Amino acid sequence: AMLRLRLLTWDVKDTLLRLRQPVGESYAAAARAHGLRLRPEALSQAFWEVYGAQSRRLPNYGQGRGLSSRQWWGDVVKQAFRLSGVHEDGVLTLMAENLYRDFCSARNWEVLPGAAETLRQCCQRGFCMGVVSNFDNRLENILSQCNLRHHFKFVLTSEDTGFAKPDGRIFEKALRLGGVPPEQAAHIGDDYTQDYRAARAVGMHSFLLRAAGQGEEPEVPPEHILPTLGHLLALIEK
């Protein structure tokens, strides 16, 4: 039977947008502007180590700890460069500010293949659409710069709502904004726990974007798997 869906909610990172290059490449370029030669691979490794530790210590950009996401990211950038041997405070501060600005633009983000077309077709079919993303408050601007913002009635970030996926409250807020009960809504994302399972836990439908051969989660029926975004409408309209 055709799903009676009225609302579609979307994850962003690695669902609609992806980084144009590994983080270490962007950080190495920022360092070169200050005459510093650093290896991108080493910077990537330092970044993910620091980002992981900071996320555990201060989840959701330090929400409720009196930090702004800008400060949270600034600390991550500076610590990653310190691990890579850069210690001048003035240089660290400038690089952190430049990178925060650069990651707010289409300079570092690109639209995934098929994403713009799929969103356009979903809008044409009359679906209400929103974003539900574990992201900081730069997301609206990034979506605008990548020419996707106009597809969405609302953009919910974990920073703005105070709840990060898989917390069901961010999905419940999306349902309120969309004005639909959960059984008339579906969430599309690339993460089994934060997207697929979390949306289903509040009673929504969900589709997992996953290229062939990526980790197989036995609990996901094949009709909930999207090999590409282009497969979505056929599954919804079955």
Automatic annotation (TrEMBL):
One of its GO terms (cellular component) is nucleus. InterPro entries: HAD-like_hydrolase_domain, HAD-like_sf, HAD-SF_hydro_IA, HAD-SF_hydro_IA_REG-2-like, HAD-SF_hydro_IA_REG-2-like_cap, HAD_sf. Pfam families: Hydrolase. Transmembrane segments: none annotated. NCBIfam families: DREG-2 (TIGR02252), HAD-SF-IA-v1 (TIGR01549), HAD-SF-IA-v3 (TIGR01509). Belongs to the HAD-like hydrolase superfamily. This is Haloacid dehalogenase-like hydrolase domain-containing protein 3.
